[in-house]
Write a structure and sequence with these properties.
single chain; alpha+beta; Endonuclease, Chain A; 15-stranded mixed β-sheet; 12 helices; 15 strands; about 25% strand; globular
Amino acid sequence: MKKALLGAVVALGLAAIGWAFLGRSRESSGHFLLDVRAPSQGRGFSAALEQTVGAPLRPGHKIALLPNGKVFDALTDAIRGAKQSVNIEMYIWSHGKASTSVISALRERKKGVACRVLLDAEGSISRGEEVDKDLRDVECAMLLFRKATAIFARNHRKVAVIDGRIGITGGFGVDDKWLGNGEDEDHWRDTNVRVEGTAVSDMQEAFAEDWQEAGGGLLPPEDFPEQPKDGTVPAAFVRSISSPVVTRAERLTQLAIDAAHERLFIENAYFVPGKPVLELLKRRATEGVEVRILVPGRQSDSKMSFLYQQREYGDLLKSGSRVWEFQPTMMHAKTMVVDEALVVIGSVNLDPLSLNKLEEAALVAEDPALATQLVRLFEDDVARSKEQK
């Protein structure tokens, strides 16, 4: 109870300080504008991605879309089938049904399978003693990330890697609000993916370097197996850390917008981008790109973010963009669909904290089938949203 109360107080303090920071950083973030017109497919986009964030698209991936609570089905199935290791880094982990399902799967994993859980010290401050005890009981090593460092430089990534071969990432946390199907105010709308292929090694590396910083040791070589390449999807895993100049999250966001020639569908939980992103969005819409943006409505868990995002509608609508506010619950997804095949799914919010200060990650893939699925999700969400005029 004391930890939960402390967590609430800290969260309120962080929110107040964070939004004061947000207002200032939005105005000062205009020094970087990636003003290029990249292709959205093939070697051209892969080369642009490598130059921009150091991660080219590599072939051979299998990717499955995991909307809303389906992420826990995939995560617990993978844990129960693990042969070598379960490595999870999470911003939010709270006691409840979602946690119980993951703990149950960990309890049922094969004997000898290592388990490591890395939680952000601020994001999971309200987890309660139950989570710590549950993880100890199932013999999981648990560490906290940055217990006493810069207040904004948090680990906002959501990554699970099983046996170094299966990766799961997106916008979810281990909390009951990510259960269900995003249909009521107690269950959020979110989007995640299950991945196999070389990008999983990059996900494992992202976990490993954060695990080291938190005081953990090196992962064994077996956690970095040779990856199968029997999938059909080119993909890359892009991770971002705080930067005083420009982050990879910002670079990736701008490049994806630059690559849009026909359509750009965005769903984002905290739509408070800086001037460069807004400028690029307006340019694409003015050029005839179908720019559609779906953001939280009044069910947003951040009223300050909700107020900030509404300030931007006017110029976006004048440029030809269309904007909707999601009505049933908090819309927490962070996705982009560019043209026919390019998709971005991860933890990157379009706000100054995410684009400047937080550790973030996203999967980038060239996958027409996945793009089609995301467009259908977008259309389903639009049907439950209110268009802004």
